[in-house]
Amino acid sequence: MQLQNIANAGEWTGLNPTIKQTLLYHGYTQMTPVQASVIPLFLAYKDVVVEAVTGSGKTLSFVIPILEMLLRRYQQDRPLKKNEIGAVIISPTRELAQQIHKVMTPFIDALNEDENCIVKEGIRHLLFIGGNDTREDVKLFNEKGGQIVIGTPGRLDDLFKRSTIFNTKEVEVLVMDEADRLLDMGFEVQLTSIIRKIPKQRRTGLFSATMTEALTKLVKAGLRNPVKVQVKVQSNDGEMISEQKVPSTLEMFYLIAKPDEKIARLVSILKNNQEKKFIIYFATGACVDFFYKILKNIEGLKELSFHSLHGKMVTKKRELTFQKYSQGGAGSVLICTDIAARGLDLPDIDFVIQYDAPQDPKAFAHRCGRTARIGRGGQAVIMLNENESTYVEFLEIRKLSTKEYPDEGGVSKSNILMQIKDMVIGDRDIYDKVKAN
Ligand SMILES: Nc1ncnc2c1ncn2[C@@H]1O[C@H](COP(=O)(O)OP(=O)(O)OP(=O)(O)O)[C@@H](O)[C@H]1O
């Protein structure tokens, strides 16, 4: 595999004028470094394995080439028939798939509005994710087809197997976003099954901020002589670092607290930084439900607006929560599991708190990466119990965090515990959650 290390941004060149106009309209005046490297490679029909820091613009680096390659095939007089798919994008979570769909929408709208667009029947991108009715998915595709499909691996595999109306023989581009996560989540069987249905003569892209050894197998099975793109990050002292997974505009801290002090420290951070937008990670869905009920009722936090998100919630509720939190400003707090650790692009998050250390060490960087995106600043704190203090060494070795978060005070531990006790006694539902924890 060839290795390309890049650090510089660049001008948008050689793109369809409508696509370029849409980029400029959105204020994307220049390509980010990852885009400057990946777009030309993809357009030169190379397979790519892309490892670039969180929030560096990886999504557009595959969205743009997919659209350009689709237009190109129509220019070459190779249009797609109604039930033929030209590109498949696989994402590990429903939220991320929805986000990719949303990033692509303005480009497709602009192309469809352009009377000179070569795709006269219109370009359609369809979203196929778990939680929705598969019969609706089939109906939707059957009605008008879709040249680009975006989805979660289980649902895509299911649809491609279940119904012969999805013709994948013309797929030219396959993208696996957060590719390492797709494998970690145990989707290897579904990925292999999808890959088998797609022609070998395709372009494939694997994208993530963190790559693992396990991916080597997938790369060997699914990619042909790929170029590996690693985007270097400039550290504060000017050194170029390629192993860094998070941007240098991110300030990272840890704090060590006894179990009975931890919640008071959390309350103190929230109370003392009410002008910020937060995301807080917990280990399980039960913890999320519990802290959601508790935190919003704690004195001093009632002005904040809390939202909760985990995998056991139904899709509609997940969508609604995500939408409300995205629109919320200062004082919005998302309480969630690792379901919201990767890929989600919420540019105005100021503060990431990891109340529970992640089980998978790679999730650390992805969680932190929800803030400080595209040159903005941000802070991230990981809260550790005393018996987890070796985690600090792990962070130091990885050059991730060496600063201890100061105790901002203003909160009495015994008062917080008293409030929680009252809430637990008064609420059977919370009581059950406490027992479950
Ligand atoms: N060329 C550009 N100029 C300015 N902003 C951009 C550009 N490209 C993308 N962005 C913005 O940067 C933000 C991050 O992009 P994106 O979500 O693609 O990052 P990512 O690398 O996929 O991050 P993660 O690893 O967390 O998934 C988005 O808000 C996007 O709109």
Automatic annotation (TrEMBL):
Concerning InterPro entries, the annotation shows:
DEAD/DEAH_box_helicase_dom (IPR011545), Helicase_ATP-bd (IPR014001), Helicase_C-like (IPR001650), P-loop_NTPase (IPR027417), RNA-helicase_DEAD-box_CS (IPR000629)
The molecular function GO annotations come to: ATP binding; hydrolase activity; RNA binding; RNA helicase activity
Query: What is catalyzed by this enzyme?
Result: ATP + H2O = ADP + phosphate + H(+)
Looking up Pfam families in the UniProt record yields: DEAD, Helicase_C
The UniProt keyword set, sorted, is: ATP-binding, Helicase, Hydrolase, Nucleotide-binding, RNA-binding
Question: SMART domains, alphabetically?
Answer: DEXDc (SM00487), HELICc (SM00490)
EC number assigned by the record: 3.6.4.13
Domain Helicase C-terminal, which positions? Answer: 262-424
Q: What class of enzyme is it?
A: hydrolase
Residue ranges annotated for the Helicase ATP-binding domain, each copy included: 39-229
PANTHER family found in the cross-reference section:
RNA HELICASE (PTHR24031)
Sequence similarity: Belongs to the DEAD box helicase family.
UniProt domain comment:
The Q motif is unique to and characteristic of the DEAD box family of RNA helicases and controls ATP binding and hydrolysis.
Entry function:
RNA helicase.
- What this protein is called in its record is ATP-dependent RNA helicase
Tell me which species this is from: Boothiomyces macroporosus
* This protein's encoding gene: SPB4
